[in-house]
Amino acid sequence: MSANITVHLMRHGEVHNPQRIVYGRLPNYHLSEKGQQMVRLSAEEFKRRADAGSRFVYLACSPLTRTQESAAPITELLGLEAHHDERVIEADNYFEGMHVDAKELATNPRHWKHLLNPLRPSWGEPYQEQVERMVGAVRDTARKAYELGGEGAEAIIVSHQLPIWLTRLSAEGKAYPHDPRTRECNLASITSFHFDELDGSQRPTLSYTEPAAPLYSGVIQLPGS
């Protein structure tokens, strides 16, 4: 049975983080002023699509502060309540709460055991575990969208860079280990998963947009964001 369901994974906006801490799952890291502008642009893009005929029926987000704040303008413009989903939270990270640079990694022996296996990775939540929870959340959200809106319905999940990127790699059938600098998942970007079927028999097709691209100049991005 054809479903024609789309689930959009939106990354949160820029976070106020002048000390450049790997904030990971820490609470109370809020969007910066520019971050608020970024997510507003993405929400306005969803509203533009809704005005053109897209049917958005469900909104979910990670329970962290920055994703809740990023979902807020979507709630305002589309009238969708944001449902918290623990499965789309940021990856666990050994370096959470630290300011980490190349010198710190090279000269502090207590970090070295956490750098031995980049394929797992040894510094945090295994890639495979992130994929399993994220794919489960995306597929459940797709089914929820179908239940609420039928064929052609769309849903939005506000999440974090690494979990979104790994979900994309999984959908593309690619290996999970990667260089973080190569991720195509910028701040407030939208990675869309288009499902023709909901039984898992087919991989979704993908599309990617950056509504907040005009605001990217000068932004500093860190792992664990």
From TrEMBL:
TM ranges are none
Any one GO CC term of the record: cytoplasm
* GO MF annotation: an example: phosphatase activity
Q: Which domain of life is it from?
A: Bacteria
InterPro entries reported in the protein's UniProt record: His_Pase_superF_clade-1, His_PPase_superfam, PGM_Phosphatase
Q: What Pfam families does its record include?
A: His_Phos_1
Give the protein's recorded name. Histidine phosphatase family protein
Annotated source species:
Rothia terrae
